[in-house]
Amino acid sequence: MIPNTTLFQNIFLVIAYLLGSIPTAVWVSRYFFKTDIREHGSGNAGTTNTLRVLGKTPAIFVLAVDLLKGLAAVKLALLFPETMHGSNYWMNLGCVYGMAAVLGHIYPVFAGFRGGKGIATLFGMIIGLNIFLALILALLFFSIVLVSKYVSLGSILSAIAMPVATWVLFPSDEYTKLHILSISIPLLVIYTHRENIQRLIKGVESKTNLVGGKK
After folding, report:
1. Cα dihedral angle (83, 67, 16, 75), rounded to 10 degrees?
2. Banded pLDDT at 30 (limits 50, 70, 90)
3. Which residues fall within 8 angstroms of residue 64, CB to CB, at 6 or more apart?
4. Potential cystine with 16: which of 10, 97, 131, 200 (Cβ 3.0-4.6 Å)?
5. Rounded mean pLDDT of 188-194?
6. pLDDT: is 15 or 3 the higher one?
7. How many CB atoms lie within 10 A of CB 97?
8. Residues 9, 93: contact at Cβ < 8 Å?
9. How far apart are the first and last CA of the chain?
10. What pLDDT sits at residue 176?
11. What is the predicted pLDDT for the residue at 175?
12. Which own/partner contact pairs does 23-31 have at CB distance under 8 Å and 24+ positions apart?
C-alpha cells in the first residue's frame, strides 16, 4: 500500500497523465506502417481513424490499449489504504486520475500534445469506475452508431446522457467528484468534437461501418 499523502496523490496524478499520454495510434502507425496516422483521414489519433486508414487489426489494438489506459489510471486509486473498492473516497480519487489519463490522451506529452479525442480512454475510465454505468453508455453508443453510422454522433449523445445515468446510479451527494465529472465530460466531448459537429450539421461527416471500416 502507498501512504495516503498529498505528495503521493500528486505523484500518481502525474503517472495517470503519463499513462494517458501513450499515443497508441501514433506509435502503431509509425512503427508498423512508417507513417503518422495524424496525416491521414480525419487527422485524429484514435480508433476510428485507425480503422479507416489502417484497418481492423490495428484499430482493435489501438482501442484495447486506449481503453486500458483509462482503466489503469482509475485503478491507481486502489493503491492507497483508505480507498476500499466501491467507496465514495475511492470513486472520487479514481475520477481525478481517470480524467488525468483522458487529458493525457488528448494532449499527449509523448506526441507533441497532438492526440485523439479521448473517447476510448474515457470509456476505459468509466469501466473502471462502474461497469453498470459503462454498459448503459456503451449500449446507447452502439445503438446510435449502428443506426446512424456516425461514430462522432454516438460519442456526443452518449456523453450528454452520462449525467442522467450517473445520477440514477449514484444519487448520493457523497459522490461529488463523480457528479462533477459526469457534467464536465459532455462539455469536453463537445469541445473535442467541435469539427465533427460542424460536419454533421453540413451533412458531410464521414460514416463508419464498425464491422467493415469506412463507408
Report:
1. 10
2. very high
3. none
4. 97
5. 95
6. 15
7. 26
8. yes
9. 49
10. 80
11. 78
12. 23/108, 23/110, 23/111, 23/115, 24/61, 24/62, 24/65, 24/66, 24/69, 25/49, 25/50, 25/62, 25/66, 25/116, 26/108, 26/111, 26/115, 28/54, 28/58, 28/61, 28/62, 29/53, 29/54, 29/58
State the cell numbers at 116.
485523439
Query: Looking at residues 161-173, what average pLDDT do you find?
Result: 90
- In this structure, what C-alpha cell is assigned to residue 57? 487489426
Among 38-47, 111-120, 174-183, the minimum mean pLDDT is found in: 174-183
**1 assigned to some structural domain:** no
Domains: count for the chain: 1
CA separation, residue 74 to residues 12, 28, 101, 143, 174 (Å): 10, 24, 9, 27, 18
Q: How many residues does the chain have?
A: 215
**DSSP code of 172?**
S
Cα angle value 188/193/198 (rounded, 5°): 135
Q: Is residue 194 part of a domain?
A: yes
Inter-CA distances, 143 with 29, 48, 61, 147, Å: 29, 16, 23, 6
| DSSP 8-state symbol, 39 | G
Query: Cell 469506475 maps to which residue?
Result: 129
| Lookup result for grid cell 489494438 | 61
